[in-house]
Amino acid sequence: MSGLLHWVATHGEIIGRTVREHLVLSGVALAVALALALPMGVALVRHPRAAAIAVGGVNTLRTIPSLALLVIMLPVLGTGFLPSVVALTLYGLPAILLNTLVGLREVDADVIDAARGQGLSERQITTDITIPLALPVILAGIRTSAVQIVSAATLAVFIGGGGLGELISSGLGLLDIAQLVTGALLVALLAVATELVFGAIQFGLARRYGIAS
User: Is 185 in contact with 14 (CB distance < 8 Å)?
Assistant: First the structure.
């Protein structure tokens, strides 16, 4: 334990840098996954055939190991930040898209019919009725995706993406147990913190809209 604490105390700069890289990498990938999956889910829910094709596609992505997905980016985009973000985005996309589709489909048809009867447009029904009611399921998907991305980002080091995987990889290569354990613990702490933060957001939004989380 003393060796671990000593390593942390004497390597604050590299720890800070790799944590920042990991957070930026994960945050950008999650943001892109959200920007793609949420509009896609809203659009596909009205087109069952297209939705079935999309679900099949994202389920295929879920079967590909995260390291394999990162390595696939090598001949396409090379190494570095961009291919890491693309791979992590693809890795985080399925949970958000699938939960968005499920959440929107589970909204009670009677509620939607009642909204139409009151003269609401389809856009108003989507923004004011279906999306708020589907929020708990959608947010559960975002929460799952965020934790998956934070965990998988550890492997981005193998294609030059940086992040906390650098500490783990270097620790293994140098047989430096303190460095290895530090990297592993920091990844675990980030994953737990991500789970807690998104759980709090999910709970807060559910209370705001008065629906069960």
Answer: no
Q: Does residue 195 form part of some domain?
A: yes
First CA to last CA across the chain, in angstroms? 40
Q: Report residue 132 as tokens.
A: 């708020």
Type and span of the H or E element at 52: helix 48-63
* Residue 43 CB neighbour total at 10 angstroms: 12
Using N-to-C axis directions, what is the helix angle for 81-105 and 48-63, rounded to 10°? 130
- What's the pLDDT tens digit per position in 110-142? 787 787 778 777 787 787 788 888 888 899 999
Residues 10 and 12: their CA atoms lie apart, in Å, by: 6
| Paired tokens of 11 | 């390597």
Instruction: Give the pLDDT score at 29.
Output: 96
In a domain, 212, yes or no: no
CA–CA separation, 182 vs 4, rounded Å? 7
Q: Which two tokens stand for residue 109?
A: 């048809």
How many structural domains does the chain have? 1
